[in-house]
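seq:
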Amino acid sequence: MDLQRGFPTVPRPNEDIIEALTTCCVCGGKLVFKHETDFLALQVVEKGCCPACGIKTKENSFILQ
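struct:
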C-alpha cells in the first residue's frame, strides 16, 4: 500500500494494465491506435479508435527527446 498520496493502491500485474488501456470501455473490443509524428515540433500525437463501435479516445500528446 502506498499512502504517500493519501489513498491506498493495490498492485496490479502489467498484463492487466495493458489490457485495460487497449480495450474499449463501451463494447469491450480492441482499440486501434494511430501515431502522428511531427519531427519539427518534436511531438507525437496518439489517437485511439474502436472499429467495432466507433468510439474515439482522448488524443494524447508526447514530447520527443
